[in-house]
Amino acid sequence: MRRFLGAAIALVAALGACRPARDPLEVRLGYAPNLTHAQALVGLARGDLDKALPAPYRLAATPFNAGPAMIEALFAGEIDLAYLGPAPAVNGFLQSGGRAIRIIAGSSSGGSALVVREGAGIGDERNLQGRGIAVPQFGGTQDVALRTFLRKLGLKTYEHGGDVRVLAVPNPEILVLFKKGQLDAAMVPEPWVARLEAEARGRILVDERTLWPGERYATTLLIARTEFLQRHPEAARRFVDAHVGLTEWVAAHPKEAVGFIREQVKAVLGKPLPEAIVARGLSRVEVTVDPLPVTVREDAKRAWQLGYLKHPPRIEGIMDLRLVNEVLGARGLARVSDGGLGPSASLVLATPGNAAAQERP
Asked: What is the CATH number of domain 2-14+27-109+217-359?
């Protein structure tokens, strides 16, 4: 993973001259068709995110399979904002020397689980030895969660001399392999947990919530390119305001949210998900603008312990919650804490009144 991200950064300058010039008025969003990205799905289906941007900005949204691919796109300047998990966010922050990205709000907690196929002979955690277990992508949030869980069980993965194979398989293919009986277990986010249960004889072996104190942890965060925050502060603020509004709405109207989520998932995957599956999966997701910084710090520590990071991570400065706290204050809502992971004094991001910073590259 380190080599992959390092190579991605090194190629950015070389590839930059080959990319067509971007539309400076286009705000580009990355997201995944997962229920842990509920605000993105509802906001795109209803048009909230596009309508929130000040004229003449417009929104362009691109779906991704998992977070590491979004980080590569952020490095390449191909997207400005992204809904993604803490593991790739931390990797991206560290690999760019703390310069490329910022966490600007929380998005969700919960909504991921280790699912096993009925008939695979996995009665409990001890039966995971010698198995192949899929994750959506190496270096992603579910990958880090799975490997940490295996370590706590005393199980080693194949590359570390053990006999548990962790396999990187896109979510739709995980479902196909479950149905064919060719895959025994997978660590996946919703709605894939609910789909494996309903469509492929899957059973939740471990709900990831049970592995965290208080059963809350950052599953998805709202990330921005630092350059985008500097150059387009009002567009960023308006997007964050829409994100906060969507978070409140989804939490208060989960039944209505199901319909909009189904609509957007159909637009990405080509067919709608059954209402019961979306409702079941969404019931295991908590939408929240709280980035749960203690768990983000813990995720960074775990990535280092797993060998994804060369040195003990220092991620102070990864969060910049000034915009979301401004929005929360204006709405009369409680502000959220960065847990000591906020911006350093040396970083000056643009604000509507800081014209010099807006012109800074």
From this structure: 3.40.190.10
